[in-house]
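Figure 2 data, in text form.
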Amino acid sequence: MKKIRLINGPNINFTGIREKGVYGSLSYERIIEIVAEKAREMDFEIDCFQSNHEGGIIDYIQKCFLEETDGIIINPGAFTHYSYAIRDAIASVGIPVVEVHMSNIHSREEFRHLSVTAPVCRGQICGFGYFGYIMALSAFENIFEES
């Protein structure tokens, strides 16, 4: 069974509370339930982690390496646009990473258009709400079939 880890950054835990027009009305807890259920159906072992702190995310990425994780889905939240530390952590572990954003970051404010983390990820999915996480699981099915 392949190990997938889902990492969510700052304020993602307030999904369903904040800016419902942008992020939707489903609660963070419900989204995690949906993603975990789909992962189990796909025969993935999944663990979900959320932190509002950059260091916590970096520590978790490093833990993924030590635990021989097969793939990471990450929504770095606002850290997407400026955290070279998270970028370097992703680059250092050699684990395939898919970056997900619930909103279309390219159609929002200009500062959101740049992702400093995407260049070290296998790919980026944005603009499909919570379904982007499901799409990332499907991407991992394909990645694992290729290897």
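Caption note: The longest strand covers residues 2-8.
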